[in-house]
Amino acid sequence: MANILVTGGAGYIGSHTCLELLNAGYDVVVYDNLSNSAQESLNRVESLTGKKLTFIQGDIRDSVALDSVFAEHQIDAVIHFAGLKAVGESQQVPLTYFDNNIAGSIQLVQAMQRAQVFNLVFSSSATVYDEANVSPLNEDMPTGMPSNNYGYTKLIVEQLLQKLSLSDQRWSIALLRYFNPVGAHQSGQIGEDPQGIPNNLMPFVTQVAVGRREKLSIFGDDYDTVDGTGVRDYIHVVDLANAHLCALQNRLNHNGCRAWNIGTGKGKSVLQVKNTFEQVNGVKVAFEISPRREGDVATSFANNVRAIEELNWTPKYNLEDMLKDSWRWQQQNPNGYRD
Ligand code: NAD
Ligand code: UDP
C-alpha cells in the first residue's frame, strides 16, 4: 500500500485524515512543526486505529529537513495541510502568512520535485471564489481577490500549483476547496483544538456550551437570508477526511491540476446551527446579536456534484451528526489536548 506524507497531519483536519488513511491500510508519515497542534492527537489516532504512523517534527520551510524525509521514506503522494489559518491574525502579520503558506508550499513542491514525487492533494478553501458569485458555488466560477491575507495565500498557492502542473505533465494535483469543516471523530478522542479565542463559529458554540465563554456573538442578523444570519455549508470533518482518500485515488490515474468543492451542498444559518445544537445536545447557548463581521458574505454553499461524480465521494453526515460529534469532543476534552 502507498506511503503518504501528510504535512500538518497533527492538526484538526490532518489528524482525522491520518486516521482514515491508517484504517484504509496506507502507511503514513506526518510532518508537522506543532505550531498549532499537539502530538497527543497522533497518539490518539494510533490508539484508535491500533496502527503506527511515523511522526517527524519539522517545518515545511526547512528544505534540508524535507529532503531527508523524502530520502528516508519511500513517499508515493503528499497531502499538504500545513499552514496558518487565522483570518484576523493574517491581517496583522501578513508576511508570516506569506512565508508559511506560500513560501512553505513552494519549498514543499521543490522537495517533491527533487524526490520525483508528483502526486499532491492541497487544502484549499471556498474563500478563493469571487464574492460576486451566487451560491451554490461551482468550480467553474471565477476566483476573486479574497478579502483577507489568509484567503489570498490559498488563491496564490492554487494558481502556482496550476502553473506548475502545466509546465510538467508528471504533476498530478488535487485542489480541495473546503467549505466549513466542523464535527469530530465519533469516539470524541480527536477534534478541533483552537488556541485562544476561537475565530470560527463551531468551536465558539461548544466553548460557550461547556462554560469556557460567556456568550456567542452572532455577527449580523440583517443579511438577506432565511433568518438574517449568515449561511454556510458545514461539512463533517470525517467526510472531509475521506474526500482526501478519494482525491488520492483519483490522482493516481490522472495528470494535471483540478479543483473540487468539498461541502454538503446545503446552507445553514448561524441561528439554525445554534438552535439545532441546543436541540440535539440538550444544552443552552447564550448569545447576542452583534454587528456584521468585516469581510463576511451573506451566503456561501457548495455545488458538490463534481466531487460526487469524479471522486466517487459522498458526504454521509448531516448537521445533527456534526453538532453531536463536536459536543462529544468538547465535553470529553474541555481543554482540548491540554488535559
Ligand atoms: P490546523 O491548524 O489544526 O492544522 C494545520 C497544521 O499545520 C498544524 O498541526 C500546524 O502545527 C501545522 N503547521 C503550520 N505551519 C506549519 C509549517 N510551517 N510547517 C509544518 N507544519 C506547520 O488547521 P486545520 O483546520 O486542520 O487546517 C488544515 C488545512 O486546511 C490548512 O491549510 C487550512 O488553511 C486549510 N483549511 C482549513 C479550513 C478550516 O476551517 N479548518 C477551511 C479551509 C481550509
Ligand atoms: N459567526 C458568528 N459568530 C462567531 C463566529 C462566526 O456569528 O463567533 C458566523 C460568521 O459570521 C459566518 C458563520 O458564523 O456567518 C461561519 O463563520 P466561520 O468563521 O466559522 O467561517 P467562515 O465561513 O467565515 O470561514
Order of helices and strands: EHEHEHEHHEHEEHEEEHEEHEEHH
CATH topology tier name of the domain at 3-182 and 235-263:
Rossmann fold
N- and C-termini, Cα separation: 35 Å
Order of strands in the sheet with the most strands? 3-2-1-4-5-6-11
Low-confidence stretches: none
Q: What is the fourth-level CATH superfamily of the domain at 3-182 and 235-263?
A: NAD(P)-binding Rossmann-like Domain
Rg of Cα set: 19 Å
The structure class reads alpha/beta
CATH class of the domain at 3-182 and 235-263: Alpha Beta
SS summary, helix count: 11
Q: In percent, how helical is the residue content? A: 25-40%
The major pleated sheet works out as: 7 strands, parallel
The averaged pLDDT comes out at 97
Number of extended strands: 14
Bound compounds: nicotinamide-adenine-dinucleotide, uridine-5'-diphosphate
The CATH architecture of the domain at 3-182 and 235-263 comes to 3-Layer(aba) Sandwich
Shape: globular
The share of residues in extended strands comes to: 15-25%
Pfam families: Epimerase (PF01370)
Pathway: Carbohydrate metabolism; galactose metabolism
EC number: 5.1.3.2
Family: Belongs to the NAD(P)-dependent epimerase/dehydratase family.
